[in-house]
Amino acid sequence: MTLNLNMSDKILSREEIRSYSPAALAFFGDCAWEILVRKYILSGGNAPSGKLHNRSVEMVRASYQSAAAELIEDILTEEEADIFRRGRNASGIQVPKSSTPAEYHRATGLEALFGYLFLTGGYDRANQLFEVILNGNNKK
Fold it and tell me: Is the pLDDT of residue 111 over 50?
């Protein structure tokens, strides 16, 4: 079996994406977010894998993602805001002890949004939102 990592393989239409549950979008969005985080961390230079991992863990935590969602909520398009809300309001989510329910729900909304953007080919928009998050977090 050959694994093709060409992200432009199958771009989903807005109609197709509506058939996916918020949990499915967040499932993929978790991966999309991690790719952006790891790319950002590696842009800072080479380091031992343990240090790289520790840096990435900080940015993939629900508390970080929740704060990140707050930084971009006001600049989302109507459709993006709808996807975020669907993810945030998804039912059946098991909240880990390391975060509050509100943080975890906002983090799930963020992951659903990034899953949506990647699956619909909105890589430029995902990068734009990620930059806003990085700039907002660097101001703290």
Answer: yes
Q: Is 82 a catalytic residue?
A: no
Q: Residue 6 is which amino acid? A: N
Which is catalytic among the residues 30, 74, 82, 124?
30
Tokens of residue 128, six digits: 């734009």
Chain-centre distance for alpha carbon 127: 11
CB burial class (10 A; 0-12, 13-18, 19+) of residue 93? middle
Closest to 119 measured CA to CA, from 10, 1, 21, 36:
10
First CA to last CA across the chain, in angstroms?
Answer: 46
Q: Is 122 exposed, middle or buried (0-12, 13-18, 19+ CB in 10 A)?
A: middle
pTM (two decimals): 0.89
